[in-house]
């Protein structure tokens, strides 16, 4: 799986791409991430990437030409990338959408927008617009990293114990059951007896019940819902 990111801040990716799950997946050759610095495609002596909005108003708007040039470069290097614009105006990401993104071969081209906005004509260059939630970030870089990590988890071999993935995908959009580890008692709170008994059928039933209750209590919006 290949991820290409078009960004004004490639440095922002250094540490997230070198640590943890993503870092390991890159080292193992399971994924690769190519950063395209938008500044390299800027216009004129100052490598301009934005300008004032037609019609007036506050702030600057990202011009379409540098973005088009960066997209062309990425797609020339890897034809067939699924083109995504990260914006709070996009479809809101969820696990079902992440699973669909993981199917896109050879990979994803992610545009991390910055500033107050992007010229409307850029939207015609994308296959999909995605938001990672109903809040506004300073730009799409962190959203791109969220997508890279969520998709990488689904690349075969990236997650140490694939059983945990299997459980997630079968359970649909429900919350996880409560987990416990040592010690048996912590600040007066005991691990539920059922988990200490070794009866795996009982444990399974208890966990299913807890997951169901927890979902109903915390996320009633997910109850009875198919993956969307
Ligand atoms: N850029 C700014 N806010 C964003 C969000 N919530 N999701 C994706 N990209 C964004």
Describe the protein's architecture and organization.
With 228 residues, the protein is of the alpha/beta class. It has two domains: 2-152, 3-Layer(aba) Sandwich (Alpha/beta knot); 168-222, tRNA(m1g37)methyltransferase, domain 2 (Trp Operon Repressor, Chain A, Orthogonal Bundle). The protein has seven helices and ten strands. It has helices at residues 14-18, 20-27, 64-77, 95-101, 141-152, 162-171, 200-218; strands at residues 2-7, 32-37, 50-51, 61-62, 82-92, 107-112, 117-118, 128-131, 185-186, 189-190. A five-stranded parallel β-sheet has the order 2-1-6-5-8, sandwiched between helices. It has a three-stranded mixed β-sheet with strand order 3-4-7, with no helix packed on it. Strands 9-10 form a two-stranded antiparallel sheet. β9 (185-186) and β10 form a beta hairpin. The longest helix is centred in the last third of the chain and has 19 residues, at 200-218. The chain is elongated. The two termini are 23 Å apart. The model has no long low-confidence stretch (mean pLDDT 95). The chain binds adenine. Adenine (ADE) is lined by residues 86-88, 131-133, 135-137, 139-140, 143.
The portion of residues forming beta strands comes to 15-25%
Mean pLDDT: 95
Main sheet properties: 5 strands, parallel
Structural class by SSE content: alpha/beta
CATH superfamily of the largest domain: SPOUT methyltransferase, trefoil knot domain
Low-pLDDT runs: none
Q: Please compute the radius of gyration using only Cα atoms.
A: 22 Å
Share of helix among residues? Answer: 25-40%
Q: Total number of helical segments?
A: 7
CATH architecture of the largest domain, please? 3-Layer(aba) Sandwich
> Any idea of the CATH topology of the largest domain?
Alpha/beta knot
């Amino acid at each position: 799986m290949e991820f290409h990111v078009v960004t004004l801040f490639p440095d922002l990716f250094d540490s997230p791409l070198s640590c943890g799950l993503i870092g390991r997946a890159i080292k193992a050759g399971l994924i690769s991430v190519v950063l395209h610095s938008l500044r390299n495609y800027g216009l004129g002596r100052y490598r301009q990437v934005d300008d004032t909005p037609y019609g007036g108003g506050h702030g600057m708007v990202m011009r379409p030409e540098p973005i088009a040039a960066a997209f062309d470069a990425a797609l020339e290097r890897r034809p067939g990338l699924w083109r995504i614009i990260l914006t709070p105006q996009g479809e809101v990401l969820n696990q079902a959408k992440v699973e669909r993104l993981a199917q896109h071969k050879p990979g994803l081209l992610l545009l991390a927008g910055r500033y107050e906005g992007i010229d409307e004509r850029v939207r015609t260059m994308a296959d999909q617009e995605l938001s990672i939630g109903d809040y506004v970030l300073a730009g799409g870089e962190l959203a791109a990293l969220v997508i890279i990590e969520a998709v990488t988890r689904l690349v075969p071999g990236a997650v140490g114990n694939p059983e945990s993935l299997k459980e997630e995908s079968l359970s649909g959009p429900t919350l996880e059951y409560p987990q416990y580890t040592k010690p048996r008692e912590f600040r007066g709170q005991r691990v539920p007896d059922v988990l200490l008994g070794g009866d795996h059928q009982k444990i399974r039933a208890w966990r299913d019940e807890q997951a169901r209750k927890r979902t109903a209590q915390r996320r009633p919006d997910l109850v009875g819902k198919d993956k969307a």
